[in-house]
Write a structure and sequence with these properties.
Helix content is about 30%, strand content about 20%. The chain starts with 10 loop residues before the first strand and ends with a helix. The chain is of the alpha+beta class.
Length: about 80
């Protein structure tokens, strides 16, 4: 789904420990947002990679790949530790 000017819905950058980063369009309250693209794995990429992903999707690109597997929570905690300070 391409993004077009004049859209009256909010664009969201969303992160989850299962899917990683996704770009979605906000729908009506209490409805699930419409996901436009997933960055894919790794779930905790460097910030520059996230910025490139957003720029690519805003330019009409497809983003990354659909995430397919859950990761190890302990390994995830270690990867997130630098961002917690």
């Amino acid at each position: 789904m391409a993004l077009t000017e004049g859209t009256e819905r909010d664009l969201m950058l969303v992160w989850s420990d299962v899917h990683g980063w996704s770009i979605a369009v906000e729908t009506a309250p209490f409805e699930t947002p419409v996901v436009l693209a997933h960055l894919g794995h790794p779930v905790v990429p460097p910030p520059r990679e996230v910025a490139r992903f957003v720029a690519d999707v805003l330019a009409g690109g497809s983003g990354g790949t659909e995430p397919t597997a859950k990761g190890n929570r302990q390994a995830l905690a270690v990867r997130l530790r630098p961002y917690a300070d």
